[in-house]
Amino acid sequence: MQVDLAFLADALPVCIAYVDAGQRYRFSNKSFEQWLGCSRQSLFGRHVAEVLGAPAYELMQKQIEAALAGETVRFEGIVPLQGLGERQLRVDLVPDHRGYGAVQGFFSVVTDMSEASRSEVDLSQRLRGMQALNRQLREVQGPLIEAERLGAASDLAISIAQAINNPLTALIGTLEMALEAPRRARLKPERILHLAHRIKNVVGEMLHSFRQDHFNLEATDPAELLSDVRDALASRAAAQAVTLRLKVQTALHHLLVDRKLLRRALVNIGENGLDEMRDGGTLTLEVGDVPGLELLEFRVSDTGPGIPHELRKRVLESFFTTKEDSRGLGLSIAHGVVRGHEGRIRIEDRPGGGTLVAVELPRLPAHTGVTEDR
Q1: Which neighbouring-strand residues pair with 219?
Q2: Domains and CATH numbers, the chain
Q3: Which of 75, 182, 281, 283 has the smallest CB count inside 10 Å?
């Protein structure tokens, strides 16, 4: 039976030894021998102090004496072992009560946690390092966020300034001519008033686009709206040798939208298409029902190089642009306007090359008809 117990002890992956009442080793399993680096024969009969070393014995002497007095003891701590150096150990001492009355010795079960402890220390050090780095990043992040905010505000200001620059220049020119003209020359207040209204409208549209908490909703004919968009794009399209095509489905129901804002959104989408066709092409403006749904869809397609798939979501972000002469606000404003009308924008490849931007908006049921090419 003793052989069977020894065989079982050798099979266990923990360090087990038996120490008699005289504190001498009488048994050790293979794990214990491998841990200390000595054979079972060399351990047999040797005193604990001799095997572990005087410093380790002094550290654990009270626990050993308590075990020999019949008390089950657990010790955890760093132990300076002879030949092994300092080790993080957990030692369980279980008294042997198999005799009649007196304790015959104790079983020692040793768990060396040094590697795990070192890993924990390493993880702890890394964690402290990451926490320190995080604090440094926060210290740097504050000024960066503020700089980004100021940069965004600066870009917005530049965009608005660019939008009002042309009518403002014309207004100043008109006033200068009036000042330089002879007194008998008649000042044309209607010209000045017209330019002033243009500036007011541009600024109003820009600010309204960034404050979409309310809309001036009105019944709007989608065909007339798209025709206005075409007219707004016509001059630039002609300058770039771009052909404008308008396709409108007949008998469309009116939309309940903020006409000015939606017009601005569609013009922005069209201008983005023109940006991709500096050397000519075709820009197609379409509007029609979405089959099976109570939706109306505007489609603006160009024959440019197209938008890479990985950039399609980002082009709707404020201030994102791949163009040197753009502030990246056109499509983001359009996106905000469409979302404010509970609609959505979809960007796809145009069959045959180029980009198709679709704007879906809710509508009331309407009669459908054929598509007119205008």
Answers
A1: 256
A2: 2-112 (3.30.450.20), 119-210 (no CATH), 218-373 (3.30.565.10)
A3: 182
